[in-house]
Amino acid sequence: MTTFTRLAIPDVVLVQPKRHGDERGYFCETYKKSDFDAFGIDTVFVQDNESLSRHVGVVRGLHFQTPPFAQAKLVRAARGAIFDVAVDIRKGSPSFGQWVGATLSAARGEQLLVPHGFAHGFCTLEPDTLVVYKVDAPYAPANDAGILWDDPAIGITWPVAAEAAILSAKDRVQPRLQDYATPFAL
Questions:
Q1: Which residues are catalytic?
Q2: Structural domains counted in the chain
């Protein structure tokens, strides 16, 4: 049975599927709707995404989509490991501007459920890390948005120094949270 653990921001959930192993390896159900339903998560996923990062220290994020194409994500490392982060960007939330993070590895199989109203990002901890994630809305370019990965007001403790982080040109110039008019509210 899958176990679910609410993090310091309780809307973000660490998911640990049960692995059944023997000398050959293991088998697990990475997603089983009835387990999620039983925990009270009724998200319906519509798309699977995959990203490969060749180097340690690749930072992707902090990304999200705006309504009506906001996305909840179920994220896992299929190969390698990441430090995965969710930032609450919901106006009126007691945890607005706060972040939670978890290390997700292929070796252990953890997953992070990032709900609507959160910016998401990760940093690779191993070379050739493959990240796969389910989303509950399709990609909508006009609704693609982000905030600055190292916004000092948020204060994420990334496992890579700013000067060593490998970023896309887009992620280098995202706005700070205080300069972004978030469309999310509680």
A1: 63, 133
A2: 1
